[in-house]
Design a protein that fits this description.
The complex is a heterodimer of chains A (about 300) and B (about 325).
Chain A (H helix, E strand, L loop, with lengths): L3 E4 L12 H17 L3 H18 L1 H9 L26 H37 L1 H15 L3 H12 L3 H28 L2 H8 L4 H37 L11 H8 L8 H27 L2 E4 L1
Antiparallel strand pairs in A: 1-2
Chain B lengths: L1 H28 L4 H6 L6 H10 L6 H13 L13 H36 L4 H15 L2 H15 L12 H35 L2 H8 L4 H18 L1 H18 L5 H10 L3 H29 L1 H6 L4
Helix pairs in contact in B: 1-13, 5-6, 5-8, 5-11, 6-8, 7-8, 7-11, 8-10, 8-11, 11-12, 11-13, 12-13
The chains are: A mainly alpha (about 300), B mainly alpha (about 325).
């Protein structure tokens, strides 16, 4: 769904033959070393994402301020006393509404990325390592889904299945999984010909053990990088759906929804749509930036 | 080579059949009662319901319904819209022109700006210019088209008043003027993608030995760049299907944002009203265009690259 990612080296020679625990420790070490020399843009992105996490954590506290309506007040422009970004057509404060919207904007996307990661690991490893019949079945099914524009499929399937926020999340997990499956499959295909895998086979380790203890840690950089890129893309997908009125209830604090409602207020209070619009762009860009940086640090090459 | 062409074409047909099945099954399984959508919430006699079920063959087995629908679709009969009663085929023709114009302008903008910028970034790798272009591309890839559209509307239509707020305009020039902002909103995402792809492709070519060799032989810069740019063009051209997919996803949101009566907004309205025949037709149409483009591009690739002609694309 997002970029196709492959490992640059498939693990350095030092990796091979070592215990998998070392591989994960090395992964952590590489990340920790990287954190010391973070470029400014990545630092800023991490700050943005941290702020979003805090907002999601305290979102129950924001709820009442965000959804308090003042129908008599109606739409007011930015700079109204008590409302720095004005109010929307229901008289709700744009600033509070936007802050509370962080929850709906990122919680689902994180769930989507993690869900499709699990699908990707299971199906991708089966297809890549076992090959044969299962590979054909899995690969052909992913081809089918990947032939269509993801946003369009999300809109069609999400709209037809209907249901609430979490049903939409489930639909998107199914739509996001194929690209994860395909990517992890190709990472496994590269890794399976390495000597360390042959060694485990010679030793007669059971297949599940080879996959979970030896292959998985070595495709982890690809998986981890992709989670970030998927979160970024899921933020765009979820907000696109809610912009069209799918997956969120009317009146919920949600950036896509705010944009849709604010469209008719462009003259009365442009901030009602500009603020959530900028927030979506900034949060999605930050997530992508961190994902790209991770890919760089972990030696995962992204091929557009 | 003939075998490859046949296999690739057959693969596309199978893919389209699979997609048509999924689309049909999905809408068949969709929650909600079709008779209710058709008759509304009026009180209706059981006979009327039975007549409607009869007319739409709702009591037939699933596979029979699918077969009948597929056969009709292949014969060019796309059915009748539940919402408006108009033929779906004529609706698509009515709305298609605008979407085609919009996507073509956006495509031209994205490729026309994206490719030169991508090449520039690759040539000045790690310079400030490169970082600026890559950063801008990252924002462009991340920003949803509707958010970009609304920001453009606010900046250029409301604040500056250079462009109209909505509508399609009359006459060619007026229409272009009306489509400028929506096309720009649509083009930004794709353009960013094109920049990333071009930069990656050119960088990969610049690392090749033949470039070093050509330079070492003292060929002038223009000749060398023609060499590697031709090669870098291959992965970009072959992703035309992917680019179209990107545009079709975005056009729904852009058409809704700018209130343009195109196929995207038709799809959005039809989903809201559960207008099943229209949703099926539009989804299949998009699948057909994308799969057809990918097929054509692959075949064109075959004609252009003698190496591939001999061995076949590793598809």
């Amino acid at each position: 769904m997002s970029a196709v990612v492959t490992t640059a080296e498939g693990g350095t020679p030092a990796d091979q033959g070592r215990e998998p625990r070392d591989a994960s420790r090395r992964l952590a070490g590489r990340l920790a070393r990287g954190l010391r020399r973070v470029p400014g843009s990545v630092g800023a992105s991490i700050a943005v994402l941290s702020a979003v996490v805090v907002l999601v954590a305290i979102s129950p506290l924001l709820e009442s301020a965000a959804t308090a309506q003042d129908l008599l007040l109606g739409t007011t422009p930015a700079g109204t006393p008590g409302h720095p970004f004005g109010t929307d057509d229901l008289g709700r404060d744009v600033l509070w509404l936007s802050l509370a919207g962080a929850r709906s904007a990122v919680l689902g996307p994180v769930a989507i990325a993690l869900g499709s990661m699990i699908f990707g690991i299971v199906a991708g490893m089966i297809a890549g390592y076992l090959g044969g019949f299962w590979d054909t079945v899995i690969s052909r099914s992913t081809d089918l889904v990947l032939a269509m524009p993801p946003i369009l499929m999300a809109i069609v399937v999400g709209g037809i299945v209907g249901g609430g926020y979490w049903v939409t999340v489930a639909v998107l997990v199914v739509l996001f999984a194929p690209s994860d499956i395909r990517m992890i499959r190709s990472a496994v295909l590269q890794a399976r010909n390495q000597p360390y895998v042959e060694a485990t086979q010679v030793l007669g380790l059971p297949t599940w053990r080879v996959m979970s203890r030896h292959l998985l840690p070595n495709v982890m950089p690809v998986v981890l990088t992709n989670v970030f890129l998927n979160v970024a893309f899921a933020i765009v997908a979820m907000s696109s759906l809610s912009y069209l009125g799918l997956g969120v209830s009317p009146g919920a604090a949600d950036w896509g929804r705010q944009l849709a409602d604010g469209r008719s207020l462009l003259y009365l209070n442009p901030a009602a749509s500009v603020v959530p619009g900028l927030l979506i762009i900034v949060v999605a860009t930050s997530t992508n930036l961190v994902g790209d940086w991770l890919a760089d640090r972990l030696g995962v090459r992204s091929v557009a | 080579m003939v075998r490859f062409v046949l296999r690739r074409t057959a693969g596309t047909v199978v893919l389209l059949l699979g997609l048509s099945f999924i689309v049909f099954a999905l809408l068949y399984l969709a929650p909600g009662d079709l008779t209710k959508n058709l008759l509304g919430n009026r009180r209706v006699s059981p006979e009327a319901i039975a007549a409607v079920r009869e007319q739409y063959h709702l009591d037939d087995p699933f596979l029979l319904q699918y077969g009948r629908w597929l056969l009709a679709t292949l014969q060019g009969d796309l059915g009748v819209s539940i919402r408006s009663g108009a033929g779906v085929g004529s609706m698509l023709v009515d709305r298609g022109g605008l979407t085609m114009a919009l996507t073509l302008i956006a495509f031209a903008l994205a490729v026309g700006l994206g490719v030169p910028l991508g090449v520039l970034a690759a040539r000045r790798r790690n310079s400030a210019v490169d970082r600026g272009i890559v950063g801008a591309a990252l924002v462009g890839v991340s920003a949803p088209s509707f958010a970009v559209g609304l920001l453009l509307l606010y900046a250029f239509a409301v604040m500056l008043g250079w462009f109209p707020l909505y509508g399609v305009g009359e006459g060619v020039l007026d229409r272009l003027w009306h489509l400028a902002l929506p096309a720009a909103a649509l083009a930004i995402g794709l353009g960013a993608l094109v920049i990333k792809m071009t930069r990656t492709a050119v960088l990969a070519e610049l690392e090749q030995d033949y470039v070093t060799f050509a330079r070492a032989r003292g060929l002038n810069g223009r000749t060398v760049s023609r060499l590697y740019l031709t090669n870098a063009a291959i992965p970009i051209v072959t992703s035309a299907g992917l680019m179209l997919a990107f545009l079709f996803g975005g056009t729904i949101l852009v058409e809704v944002t700018f209130a343009l009566p195109g196929i995207g907004s038709l799809l959005s309205e039809s989903i809201t009203f559960k207008d099943v025949p229209v949703v099926q037709a539009v989804t299949l149409l998009v699948a057909l265009v994308i799969a057809g483009t990918s097929l054509l591009v692959d075949l064109a690739y075959l004609l252009l690259d003698p190496r591939v002609r001999r061995t076949g694309v590793g598809a």
